[in-house]
Amino acid sequence: MTSHLIVGAIGLLLFGWVLNLIRNGSVYVGYGSALLIAIAGIICLALIPVHFLPVFMYHAGNFMPGGFPLFLAIYCILLTLLYVLKEITAISRRLRSLTQELAIELARHGSTTDSGEPVQRRSIRAGV
């Protein structure tokens, strides 16, 4: 029973951390909500009372043969996934800000084109 409480406590800590990452904007809400649903599902599975386990295992078809090590492995996979999603969020935000800065610089210098072609190609085709 102690291992179930440890798994539940780890899950609650991870749940709170992901909520904080979403609140700070380090992870997109869509990524975070998917992780929160997965963590909540794992916590629910871990906190099944011991006297209900035989009935649950019968209906689930030996869904959790590993117990505590299996839950820890799932949490490690979720942590790795969280790291990857956090990096994707950071990269996309950097790309967005660089694109905005580039658009501002192009607007300042008046070198935007209506055709979407680079300035050099347009001037070559125009014979300039």
What share of the residues lie within helices? over 70%
- Poorly predicted regions are none
Radius of gyration: 25 Å
Biggest β-sheet description: none
Distance between the termini: 80 Å
- Which structural class do you get from the secondary structure elements? mainly alpha
Shape: rod-shaped
Strand-and-helix sequence, N→C?
HHHHH
Bin the strand percentage: under 5%
Strands, total number:
0
How many alpha or pi helices? 5
Overall mean pLDDT: 79
Report on this model:
The structure is a single chain. The chain is mostly helical and 128 residues long. It has a domain at 2-89. Helices cover 77% and strands 0% of the residues. The protein has five helices and no strands. It has helices at 2-24, 29-46, 53-60, 68-109, 119-125. The model has no long low-confidence stretch (mean pLDDT 79).
Concise description?
It is built from 5 helices and no strands.
Key terms for this structure?
single chain; 128 residues; mainly alpha; 77% helix; 0% strand; rod-shaped
Task: Give the arrangement of secondary structure elements.
Layout: H1 2-24, H2 29-46, H3 53-60, H4 68-109, H5 119-125
